[in-house]
Design a protein that fits this description.
This protein folds into two domains: 2-30 and 160-422, Neuraminidase (6 Propeller); 39-152, TolB, N-terminal domain (Rossmann fold). 12% of the residues lie in helices and 40% in strands. It contains four helices and 30 strands. The strands form seven sheets. A five-stranded mixed beta sheet has the order 2-1-3-4-5, sandwiched between helices. Strands 13, 14, 15, 16 and 17 form a five-stranded antiparallel beta sheet that branches.
Length: 433
Amino acid sequence: MRIAVLLAAAFLLPPGLAAQDTLQGGVRIGITYTPGRRAALAVARIGAGAAVDGADAIIQRDLDQSDRFDLVRAPVQDRRDTTAAAVLARVAGSRAADVLVVVEPMGGRTVVTAWDVARNTVLHRQELADVELPAGRRRVHAAADAIAGAATGQPGTAATQILFVRAGGLMRVDADGQGRAEVRAAGNPALSPAWAPDGRRIAYTAFVRSGQPIVLQDLASGRRTIVPTTETALNITPAFAPDGRRLAFARGTEAGTDIYLSEVSGLEAGPPQRLTVGRFADNLSPAWSHDGTRIAFISTRARTPQLYVMAADGTGQEVLARFDYGATGTTSAPSWSPDGQFIAFHREVDGAPQLFVVDVATRAVRQLTGSGRNEDPAWAPDSRHLVFVSSRTGTRELWVLDLETGRLRQLTAVGGARLPAWSPRLSAEGTPE
């Protein structure tokens, strides 16, 4: 019976998905946002060509989706004849934008330049080689992130990817919803994908003939290994520590489910050590703190699943966000923000999962969504955006929520998306910055 319950939790099979006809309904619950002036940003394309056109569109979308700018139209009269200096002069004269980004061909390359308009200074300039799409998309994403960082002090998250599960297989997609591709896994179904901090490796649960082991896989080569001793029982919800040298996961048997820790190096893993003692309770879904000293997890030791936290060696286990009797139901899927301030999770409210965050320091809990079914949150590297699963359009898709403004955007339109995991920032070559 316990294995059946654990399998249901792993597959996240909720009853009746209710379609939603509103995009913003309930989303601003608990979000404190004081309207203020964001920098106005314009993107201008000079010259012609598929590479320039594609880079222009991607940069504009990336900077819009960073939620740090108000995009405005650049006052360009003739795109073919206008020079960057002329565009800058027009923008400065009209006061149309605070930041101007110009994308232009130059010497066989695509050059991207961002100006602080008022100061007439260059914030960022980058020459992009081989940006023919789709091969050069990542280079353009990285350029957009660099511009966001130069203008605001906070790099964007365009040069990232999101892993998710669909139809039992693994998929990955760029943070703008483009470039979707299959990741060939060791078995089907595959569950609970997790990124290593190096951006090169992933971990997941594979359902194979011999059992449900935790698999470590190199994304580039596809090479795989199995974490020792996970060939038996049900092993789920792997999570890499921020140093990339430790992997926590949950193992379920008829006696209960407990969290284990394995030392990892590349695709090699040591024998797991047990961190919790279930005694006919379930402890699962480990999530690491930003400094690798603590682990948040879900436990049913008090019967109803609640959010707990412990030291990375298993000591000091305590409740972090208690079950709210009479108001909310079970708690699931914790995700610790990269800056260490919040833990996101979903919790049943009136029979449907909704997103919450708890402030780790104050333990104050805020509800983020209130309409439809919203579950399985995962943080972007900026600790500002969450990707999650929602059925608000009638099918389970990935959505992105900006916690500062409450802005929502749909990331996928594939149907049946589940269990997202957001990568670290990746460089133009696909490795971490």
